[in-house]
Amino acid sequence: MLLSVGQLIPPNSDIGMILQALFSISFIIYLFYAQRIQSMTMLRQVEVTLRKVKAIRDEGRRVSIQTVREVGKPEGDPTPDVERFMEHFFIQPVDLDPAGIVGKLGQLLNVRENTFEAEVRAMAPSASESEANNLENLLEASQALNIYYKVIRHFYLLGKKTMNLYIIMQIHMILPMLMREIEAYSAALQAFREGMPIGDGVGSLTAARLMRGHPWKEVAKDMVAAEVMMKGRTLLVTKAKGPGGNVGKPGDAVENLLNERKGKVKAIIMIDAAGKLEGEPTGGVAEGVGAAIGGIGVEKYKIEGAAKAHDVPLYAVVIKEDISNVVAPMVEPLFDATERAMESVGRLVDEWTEEGDTVIVAGIGNTVGIGQ
Amino acid sequence: MGERGGTAYPSMSLSWMTLLVVVAIGVFSLVSLYLGFQAYGSDNPEHASYYIIIGTAGFAAMGYMFFRTKAISTTRLKVPKVDVVTTLECPKCGLKRIREFKRGDYVFKDDEPCTRCDGQMVILRIHRREDEKAKR
C-alpha cells in the first residue's frame, strides 16, 4: 500500500524525491520488521491489562488484610500471614495410573481445606464460624487474583525478553477471557468481605427456600438437611450450612441420606447454577439428567457412585448465569429464578415419583449470605 | 516494566524522550502545513499537496501517540463496588422494607422488630440494586 501511495507522488521535484525515498524506506522497514511491530503492539496491550490486573490484585490483598484486622482482631500485623496464604499452592495427584485418583484428590482437598481453616483461625482468632468461612473465601479469591497476575506478568516479561511473537500471542489471545474471570473475582471481594449471597449460591438458595421453617440437622461436614412434605412425597432437602461462605460436602450428604434410607429413595434432584451461553438470559431455568455439580469432580464422583449403587435416577435443575455473576453479589433475576427452579422441582417430583415416595433434593453452591 | 524490591511492576509514565519526539513532530508538521498553504499561492502549487500530506501525516502520528498514552494513563484502576439491597418482611403483618445491605445480613435472618406490629422482620431477599443505566 505504501508503494502505491508513493507512486502517486511523481519524483519530478526535490520534495517529491524525498517523499518517494521515505515511502520506499518505510516499505522496506515494514517488510523486515512487521512481526516485531505487531509484537510490540500486542505487548503494549498486555502491559495495559497487566496494570489493571495488578490494581485488582493489590485491592484483593488490601481488602483481605483489612478484613482480617476488622473481623479477626489479631494481636499482631496479619500482612505476612495474608501474603503467605496468597502464595499457597496445590499439587494435583499423579494421573499416570488413573485408578483411584479421585480418592487421592479428595484426600488432598480435605488436607487443603483443613489447612486453610487452621490458617484462618490462627489469623483471625475472634472471628465467628460464619465470619471465618467468609474470610477463607475472601483469601481464596485474593489468592486466585494473585495467580492470574503472576501468570500474565510471566508471559509479558518472557515475551518482552525474547520478543517471540508466539509467546506474546499465547497470552494476548486469551486476555479477554482472562479479564472476564479476573473481573468476576474482583466482584467476589466485596461479596465475601460483607457476606453477601453470590450467583453461585442460587442452588443453595432454592434449597433454603424449600426447607425454610422445617427443622434441620447436620448430615455431613458443613451440610444440613430437612424433611419437607410436597405433594404427598417426602423431600430430603440438603444444602451447605450457611450463612458463612461454604460449599460443604454434597457428595457425603447424598451418600449418607441414601444409606440412612437404605436406598429407598425414588429420585435425586440436584439444583445448581450453570454457565450460560452468550444470548441466553440470566436466570433461565432448564431441566436435565445427571449430577448438576461443578468443582474438581470429587463430589460429583461420590454422588454418581452412590446413585448407581442404590439404582436411583439423577435429575438436574440448572439456573443459567454468566461467569461475571458466579462469585459477584447476586443479581435480582437470579433471585427470581429460584421461584421457577422450585416449580421445576415440583414438576419433576410430580412426573417421576408417586405419593409416599422419598426424594433427595440437593441445592448445590456456595451458601454465603444464605441461612436455612 | 521496572523492578522494585525484587518484583517487576509495569511502568507507564510517558518518557521525556517520547515527549520530545512528539513536540518535534508537532513543530515539523505545523511548519509543513504552513509551507503547504504558502505554496498554494506561489509559483509551485504542486508542492502544496506534498507539504500538506507531510503535515497531516505528522499530526495523525501525534494524535495516535497521544491516544495511546491517554488510554493507558486514564485507565480506571478502581475496583468497582455494587449497591446491594436487603428486603425485609414481617411475617405477621406483611410489612415490607428495603434498605441498604449491612454486614451480618443473610437470607432468612430474623432481623429488626416490625415498626407496624410486634412481629420480627425477616430478611427475604438480598440482591444487587438494578443498574439504572443498564435498564435504559
What distance separates the N and C termini of chain A? 68 Å
Number of domains of chain A: 2
Shape of chain B: rod-shaped
Strand content of chain A: 5-15%
Number of strands of chain A: 7
Low-confidence stretches of chain B: 1-12
CATH topology heading of the largest domain in chain A: Rossmann fold
Number of helices of chain B: 3
Helix content of chain A: 55-70%
Order of neighbouring strands in the sheet with most strands of chain B: 4-3-6-5
Give me the count of strands of chain B.
Answer: 6
Give a structural overview.
The complex is a heterodimer of chains A (372) and B (136). Chain A is α/β, with parallel strands linked by helices. Chain A contains 11 helices and 7 strands. In chain A, helix 4 packs across helix 5 and helix 5 runs antiparallel to helix 6. The longest helix of chain A is centred in the first third of the chain and has 59 residues. Chain B is built from 3 helices and 6 strands. Chain B has 2 domains: 72 residues; 46 residues. Chain B starts with a strand and ends with a helix. Chain B is an alpha+beta fold. In chain B, 42% of the residues lie in helices and 22% in strands. The chains are: A alpha/beta (372), B alpha+beta (136).
